[in-house]
Amino acid sequence: MAGADIGSLQSSILFSVLVLFIATTAYLLFIRSLPGQPNAHQRRALKLFSWFFLTEFLAYLVYCLRFIDLYLFSVVFNNMLYLCGVYLFYCGIRLRYQLEISLRVIGWIALHVLGLAAAMFWFTAVYNEIFIRLPLALGSFCIPVLITFSLIRQQQRPGNLGDRVLLLCTVAALLLIPLLYPIFGYLLKPDQQGQLMVMTLVTLTLETLCIGGLAISYIYDLIDKLRSDANTDKLTQSSNRRYFFKVAPLFQQRVGAGENISLVLLDIDHFKQLNDRYGHQAGDAVLRHFAALLRQLLSNTDLIVRYGGEEFLLVLPGYTPAQTLPLLQQFQALLRQSPLLYEGEELAVRASYGVAALHAGQDIDHCVHRADLALYQAKANGRDTVVLDSLGATS
Ligand SMILES: Nc1nc2c(ncn2[C@@H]2O[C@H](COP(=O)(O)OP(=O)(O)OP(=O)(O)O)[C@@H](O)[C@H]2O)c(=O)[nH]1
Fold first, then answer.
1. Interval 127-138 mean pLDDT
2. Where is the GGDEF domain (predicted)?
3. How confident is the model at residue 47 (pLDDT cuts 50, 70, 90)?
4. Are 314 and 358 in a shared domain?
5. Residue 290 Cβ < 6 Å to ligand 1
6. Of the residues 174, 201, 231, the one at which a domain ends
7. 308 lines ligand 1 (CB under 6 A)
8. Cα 331 to averaged position of ligand 1 atoms, centre (Å)
9. Which stretches of 1-102 are DSSP H helices?
10. Which of 121, 290, 358, 362 has the maximal Cβ count within 10 Å?
11. pTM for the full predicted model
12. CA–CA distance, 364 with 252 (Å, rounded to integer)
């Protein structure tokens, strides 16, 4: 192989290691910059990335070993490292989908890695023939990538960008495995040391692809979680007030286009007494129970917002205020049938309801204010009742 070719391979390897180092460091810094302590899932992902980087580092070390002429050892070790790398990618994907990495899985991986090492040792020591080693390596490397591909396909969530990036990376890895060896190996016609570098280069390129895909998907998940955390009330898992005002213009547009939308303000009755008698924890449990019952009754197109302490706001598309009555009566019945069991005691939960229609061109604050006035009236009427804003009707 020409000196210039070896030189360009060396710089490519160094470049891959550098890219990998920057990507891993950026990922670690990103995790560290998140508010609060990393959770168990993030900690496991951090460990995994450290392992990934270690294998890359070892692969680079193997590349350096050519200077002390341990060709046989380097070939075997390099292939083992590559296989470990793609299996780490597979484990990273399992962690991402919160799937267990059982001892059986680890056992199969170890068997495959050691089996490949033994075969490589045999074919290198006995035949020293790249034409036998190559199909063996290609076949072995394809197995974890194929398993990973089918795992992502099984777990794929519609519209999830992270899943799509991972699928793309595995497809690219599958295509590159049979392409890179011939391209680097045969076109450059390397000698023994050159072959070693070709192997290291292929290893690093593919692993950079895998780790890059995995890092992107993890970052996507984290951003997605941060975004949804910012819009969700932690205690009840309902949307928060911030989210309501963010999406309010969309509801106003829909009303402008002729759709009926009603707003319902609900307030749990005598919640302070509940807190005082059973404690704040019981109050929290009541709020979670109340929100869970609302989710049980309402559809995905309705919006449930925790508007204040014990106050919830429902946005019901497709409903006029009068049409919300049967729904709210159903909810009242559900509350009666489902008292909260708290430390052996049944806590009865009741609420009052104020309903107002959202009108075209009307400020959403004004609509909430009208629902609030109706709610005030419901409280004044003795609680556990529904009051409609415009009609003043009660149930
Ligand atoms: N446990 C718990 N209590 C809360 C939370 N947020 C607000 N509260 C309490 O909710 C109570 C609301 O009391 P009030 O506004 O007097 O309402 P109420 O007792 O339900 O009376 P009415 O609405 O008139 O039936 C206050 O004691 C707040 O401390 C929360 O997140 N958890």
1. 73
2. 259-391
3. low
4. yes
5. no
6. 231
7. no
8. 20
9. 3-33, 40-65, 71-96
10. 358
11. 0.61
12. 8
